[in-house]
Automatic annotation (TrEMBL):
Organism, as annotated: Paractinoplanes rishiriensis
One Pfam family recorded for the sequence: Pyr_redox_2
Ranges where the FAD/NAD(P)-binding domain occurs: 1-288
Coiled coil ranges: none
Identification of the protein by name: Pyridine nucleotide-disulfide oxidoreductase
Listed SUPFAM superfamilies: FAD/NAD(P)-binding domain
C-alpha cells in the first residue's frame, strides 16, 4: 500500500514513525517536505533570545532512516485529492492513502508596513534573524502584537513578552524600556481561566502592558507607530508581530480547503475518500500547535493500521494536548487542555515551577529519539 504524507512537521513525523514501527517494509511510505530539517516551535525562542545556537535546534530530515520510509525533499506543486496524486519538483507521486500535513503559511506582507518596519518571529528564519537585532537593541518601546486569527501556538505571544522582560533585565535596559502585548483574545489563554489569571498577575508584576481583544492592522514606518483595529496607536522602537496565517496556496488550489482551511471530521478524514488532513492546515477545532497535530496523527495512524489489517477503525480525535509556557524568571508551566468535538474547551495549569524545565526537555528529547533515531 502506498502512503504519501505531505509535510514533515509534528503530524507527518509522528504518523511516519507509527506506521513504520507497525508495518516496516510492508508499506511504501513517502514523506515529502520542502525543508531540509525540523525545528521545534519553542526552540525558535531559545535562538531568538540567544540561549542556544541555531545549529543546535536543527534536526536534519536526512537522519530519518526507517523501514518502509522514503523522505523526499521537494516543493509540492499540485494536489489532486480525487486521484490522490501529488506533483512535486522531483516528480509525481500516486497514493492509495494521502495525508495532508502542510501546516499554515505565514504572510507578513498582508499587514501594511510590517515587512518594512517590523519583525515577524513565527517563522524559523524570522526568529533566528531577530537574535542579532535583540542583541543590539538599546532599549525603548517594544510592541508584541498579533495581526489576525487563527494563529499558531496561542501561548507564544505571552511567553515572548515574559522572556523579553527577562532579556531586557539581563541587559540592564529594562528600566528604560516598555513592553506592550496586543492580542485578539479577551484573555491570554481563554480555555484555561487559571492560566490566564496567573499570566495577567505576572504581566502586572513585570510592568507588561496588556491590550486584549485587539489586533495589529498596520504599521506606519515613518512615524514608527503600530495602528490597532480600534483606532489606537502604539509607538514602538522594536515591533515583533505574529503575521497573518493562511492555508498553503497549493492546498487552496486543490479544492481541499473551505473557508480558508481543510475541513475534517474527528477521524481526520476529508470529504475525499482515503485523503486525511492533520495539523495547522485543518479547521478541526483545536489550536494550531504541534502537539495537537501529533495527537491527530495518532488517530490517522490507527485508521490506516485498521485499514491495512481489514479491521474496523473507530478511534476519534479527542482534542487533548499539553502545551509548555515559559513564565520567565526560571519558571515554566504546563497547560493541559482539551477541545472536545462540539463541546466547550477546558484546560488547567500545572506549575509554573523550575522543575518543569526537565519535563519540557524530555518532551523534546523523546520526540527526537523516536522521529530521528537519536537522543
Amino acid at each position: 500500500m502506498r502512503i504519501v504524507i505531505l509535510g514533515a512537521g509534528f503530524g507527518g513525523l509522528e504518523l511516519t514513525t507509527r506506521l513504520s514501527a507497525e508495518f516496516g517494509e510492508a508499506l511504501d511510505i513517502t514523506l515529502i517536505d520542502r525543508s531540509d530539517g525540523f525545528v521545534f516551535g519553542f526552540a525558535k525562542l531559545d535562538v531568538m533570545f540567544g540561549r542556544t545556537p541555531a545549529a543546535a535546534v536543527h534536526h536534519p530530515y536526512a537522519d530519518i532512516v526507517k523501514p518502509g520510509v522514503r523522505f523526499v525533499r521537494s516543493a509540492v506543486r499540485s494536489i489532486d485529492p480525487e486521484q490522490r496524486r501529488v506533483v512535486t519538483d522531483d516528480g509525481t507521486f500516486d497514493a492509495d492513502i494521502m495525508v495532508v500535513a502542510l501546516g499554515a503559511d505565514l504572510d507578513p506582507a498582508a499587514t501594511p508596513g510590517l515587512v518594512e518596519a517590523g519583525h515577524e518571529f513565527y517563522s524559523e528564519a524570522g526568529a533566528f534573524a531577530l537574535q542579532p537585532v535583540l542583541d543590539s537593541f538599546p532599549g525603548g518601546h517594544v510592541v508584541i502584537a498579533v495581526t489576525s486569527t487563527p494563529f499558531k501556538c496561542p501561548p507564544a505571544p505571552s511567553e515572548t513578552a515574559l522572556l523579553m522582560h527577562d532579556f531586557l533585565t539581563r541587559r540592564q535596559i529594562r528600566d528604560r524600556s516598555t513592553i506592550s502585548l496586543v492580542m485578539p483574545l479577551p484573555r491570554p489563554i481563554p480555555p484555561s481561566p487559571d492560566t490566564s489569571a496567573v499570566l495577567l498577575e505576572v504581566f502586572a508584576e513585570r510592568g507588561i502592558d496588556w491590550h486584549p481583544s485587539r489586533t495589529l492592522t498596520q504599521i506606519v514606518p515613518d512615524r514608527k507607530v503600530a495602528q490597532l483595529d480600534d483606532g489606537a496607536e502604539l509607538p514602538f522602537d522594536l515591533l515583533l508581530a505574529v503575521p497573518r496565517h493562511r492555508v498553503p496556496q497549493v492546498v487552496a488550489e486543490s479544492g481541499l480547503a473551505e473557508d480558508g482551511w481543510i475541513p475534517v471530521d474527528y477521524t481526520l478524514r476529508t470529504r475525499f475518500p482515503d485523503v486525511f488532513a492533520v495539523g495547522d492546515v485543518t479547521s478541526v477545532g483545536t489550536p494550531k500547535a504541534g502537539v495537537f497535530a501529533e495527537g491527530q496523527a495518532t488517530v490517522v495512524a490507527e485508521q490506516i493500521i485498521a485499514r491495512v489489517r481489514g479491521q474496523a477503525a473507530d478511534q476519534e480525535y479527542d482534542g487533548h494536548g499539553v502545551c509548555y509556557l515559559e513564565f520567565g524568571d526560571g519558571r515554566i508551566g504546563k497547560v493541559d487542555i482539551t477541545f472536545p468535538y462540539g463541546g466547550t474547551p477546558a484546560g488547567r495549569l500545572i506549575g509554573p515551577s523550575a522543575e518543569l524545565f526537565a519535563d519540557k526537555k524530555e518532551f523534546g528529547t523523546d520526540r527526537v529519539a523516536r522521529w530521528f533515531g537519536r537522543g
